[in-house]
Amino acid sequence: MHNKTFKTYFNWSSGKDSALALYYLLQDKNYSVDYLLTSVNSHYNRVSMHGLRKELLEKQVQAVGIPGTNIELLEQPTNAEYETIMKGKVENLLTEGYEYAAFGDIFLEDLKTYRENQLKPFGIKTVFPLWKKDTKKLMSQFIDLGFKAITVCIDGSKLDKSFAGRIIDHDFINDLPKDVDICGENGEFHTFCFDGPYFKKPVNFTKGEIIMREYNTKGFKSKFWFCDLLPE
């Protein structure tokens, strides 16, 4: 047994998995989470992958009540550019006494290994509160605890446009195709969490247009539906 509380920063995506993982950590007296770190596309001023406006991210962080900052990334950073930027930030966090980095990953082994290997040279340990938990149970718990989220990005190869801009509820779960993970852990969909048990207040927004964007990365074509959320 130990009485030490590990100073921890959370790699915050703005979505439901981050929100639920943070909930678990806030109940765990071994960790003191007092910093949120989010990757933002500086070209569009939006959260990387999710497409959420930076302004809504800032309102969300204020509602959560934990200080946060952004990693400003180029429009399409190379792995080397990303790792250089992250290295600088991690070094700063290390000097501030952070010992652990928390993530909301559930079952992607290669991603977990990548995160661990990137932080190992700094002596930063990792914690994955949702790791290997049943995604159906996680999603039900997310809803039952009173968290509220909306889909902001949909992989067009897995789901059609109608899933963009939908509230995460039991109807949403029931409508998902059988080959889509209930938590979207394979990137099928991304969300914005706008309320929850530790939120000081809900984050208000209105739904904007739903647009489709196509990408061609190393010869691989993909398309995604984005639901633009507008701050109120």
Describe what you observe in this structure.
Helices cover 29% and strands 31% of the residues. With 232 residues, the chain is an alpha/beta fold. Strands 1, 2, 3, 4, 5 and 6 form a 6-stranded mixed beta sheet that branches. The chain has a 4-stranded antiparallel beta sheet with strand order 8-7-10-9, with helices on one face. The longest helix has 17 residues, at 79-95. The radius of gyration is 17 Å and the shape is globular.
User: What percent of the residues sit in helical stretches (DSSP H or I)?
Assistant: 25-40%
Share in β-strands:
25-35%
**CA-to-CA gap between the ends?**
48 Å
Task: Output the helix-strand order.
Answer: EHEEHEHEHEHEHEEE
What is the overall pLDDT average? 94
The radius of gyration over CA amounts to: 17 Å
Q: What is the tally of beta strands?
A: 10
Question: For the report, how would you describe the main beta sheet?
Answer: 6 strands, mixed
Q: What structural class results from the helix and strand content?
A: alpha/beta
What's the gist of this structure?
The chain has 232 residues and is of the alpha/beta class. The chain contains six helices and ten strands; from the N terminus they run E-H-E-E-H-E-H-E-H-E-H-E-H-E-E-E.
Spell out the blueprint of helices and strands.
Blueprint: E1 6-11, H1 16-27, E2 31-41, E3 46-47, H2 54-64, E4 68-73, H3 79-95, E5 100-102, H4 109-119, E6 125-127, H5 135-144, E7 148-155, H6 170-175, E8 189-195, E9 205-217, E10 220-231
Parallel strand pairs: 1-2, 1-5, 2-4, 5-6
Antiparallel strand pairs: 2-3, 7-8, 7-10, 9-10
